[in-house]
């Protein structure tokens, strides 16, 4: 299950709406081993495409260096689909290289004909390990303090 703060969900959705009709992408980093994403890092879709996303290789190198320096890891890797449902494409599955990450997809397909989309979105999360996709429940909380003591 992905437990994620509402402010982070709002930031991801806002990024997807802002970049629509191109796909948006980014990372939510957290302390190594915590499974709690605390730092929202929107990235540039180097492909600038409505059907594909790609992290800029230089940006990605800087990101992983920074994560390493801060003892963080990518807890959530997100991107948007602008014309299809929030489900990983074959390309998404093939590119998934972080078995411990939650892969979040946001669909802005209801605004496919709209350059500035502000309507409803789908927000779903998956684990992708060795090409195997498993959808997981998303629990949105006001803050991680609400989950203290839960297992």
Automatic annotation (TrEMBL):
One of its GO terms (biological process) is proteolysis. GO terms for molecular function: metalloexopeptidase activity; zinc ion binding. Residues 2-132 form the MPN domain. Keywords: Hydrolase, Metal-binding, Metalloprotease, Protease, Zinc. It comes from the Bacteria. The keyword Transport does not apply. InterPro entries: JAB_dom_prok, JAMM/MPN+_dom, MPN, VirAsm_ModProt. Pfam families: Prok-JAB (PF14464). This is M67 family peptidase.
